[in-house]
Design brief:
With 345 residues, the protein is mainly alpha-helical. The protein has three domains: 64 residues, Dna Ligase, domain 1 (2-Layer Sandwich), CATH 3.30.1490; 87 residues, no CATH class; 134 residues, no CATH class. Helix content is 48%, strand content 9%. The protein is built from 13 helices and six strands. The strands form three sheets. It has a two-stranded antiparallel ribbon. Strand 5 and strand 6 form a beta hairpin. The longest helix is centred in the N-terminal third of the chain and has 32 residues. The termini are far apart. About 3% of the residues have low confidence.
Length: 345
């Protein structure tokens, strides 16, 4: 039987039609994946982006789109929602490869943020905290401390006027802080909030900015004088008594700090050491030193804000971490002689 010509032609072009259909379907699939979801210009390259505390998935997706990681923020937000990322976003620095929204979402879901671990230790100085924030740490920390808005509302009215005295209000702890612009402000907010949470109940009624500065300086001295927490309120009480009687504090810790300012580190003071010409030499100058000598611990702050009620005026270290407290200079000398005598026996 003779096959009609039309069928013969159709038979010959059928493979071509099939191939064309396959190309059409592939092209459509390519369009759906790449046009609707989008391929960013920087596809494959790593881009650094900062995720701030409190940002939602939509906020993060928008930031990723602005940075060129994805082309459309809504596609990424949708993919993040599907993976449940929107409920567990952690602030920090991320280095993410630019690409399709679904690939970016999968990569982001498996990542941990790069953060600064800023460790504030009791006794640390302004420079110690600043150095942990990077090369421009001093300038950025100065700015952050100078802004009242970075402190809890209740604390703002009693903040010390001197910017660097405010570093005393950063509670010692290790803080995970996203690096980059604003890191110092975020550190001050978190650390000062922790201080206010721990000490707001200890602040006496009618406290002023000057009271806060003086209490902070006293707390910093107590921090360096005491090794045992139970001694701290008594030491603060002794210093309060000496201040009220116009007696010099005679704190060894302030003299050690005076030498440190000159680049000399001293563990044990000699009689010559306490003759150093410095406003921090509380053997030579009455009253508190002009500035703090280190960040106080929570226990030192409580001791300074609520010192022990005592009639003691003298104390010295026993050598085992504890202190001996006495009322008079004669008792002070007698107690020292006894300690030396007991040590010989």
């Amino acid at each position: 039987m003779k096959i009609p010509r039309c069928f013969s032609i159709l038979a010959r072009i059928a493979p071509l039609l099939l191939l064309l259909s396959v190309f059409t379907l592939c092209g459509w699939a390519f369009y759906v994946v790449n046009e609707l979801e989008g391929i960013p210009e920087k596809a494959g390259s790593e881009i650094e982006v900062t995720v701030l505390p409190g940002q939602s998935a939509a906020d993060v997706a928008s930031e990723f789109a602005r940075s060129g990681i994805v082309t459309k923020s809504r596609d990424l937000a949708r993919q993040m929602a599907r993976l449940g990322i929107d409920r567990r976003i952690k602030p920090g620095i991320y280095r993410v490869r630019a690409g399709r929204a679904r690939d970016v979402a999968l990569e982001f879901a498996a990542m941990s943020p790069l953060v600064l671990n800023v460790r504030i230790l009791p006794g640390a100085l302004f420079g110690d905290v600043a150095s942990s924030l990077g090369a421009d740490g001093e300038a950025s920390l100065d700015l952050a401390l100078a802004s009242d808005d970075n402190f809890a509302e209740g604390l703002r009215v009693i903040l010390p006027g001197e910017t660097r005295e405010r570093v005393l209000l950063l509670a010692p702890e290790t803080y995970e802080i996203p690096p980059g612009e604003g890191a110092a402000a975020r550190l001050v907010k978190r650390a000062s909030d922790a201080w206010w949470l721990g000490h707001s109940a200890d602040v006496p009624p009618g406290f002023t900015s000057e009271d806060m500065k003086e209490s902070g300086i006293l707390a910093s001295i107590v921090q360096k004088e005491a090794l045992i927490d139970s001694d701290r309120p008594v030491i603060a009480g002794v210093f309060k008594n000496r201040l009220s009687r116009d007696m010099p504090l005679q704190s060894c810790a302030t003299v050690v700090y005076a030498w440190r300012q000159r680049g000399v580190r001293i563990k044990e003071l000699s009689y010559e050491d306490v003759k150093i010409d410095s406003p921090f030499n509380t053997y030579e100058h009455k009253g508190l030193p002009p500035e703090n000598i280190g960040i106080p611990s929570a226990e030192s702050w409580r001791a300074a804000l609520k010192p022990a009620v005592t009639d003691m005026l003298f104390f010295f270290a026993r050598g085992d971490g504890r202190h001996v407290f006495t009322r008079t200079y004669e008792e002070h000398l007698s107690a020292q002689r006894k300690i030396r005598s007991d040590a010989k026996d």
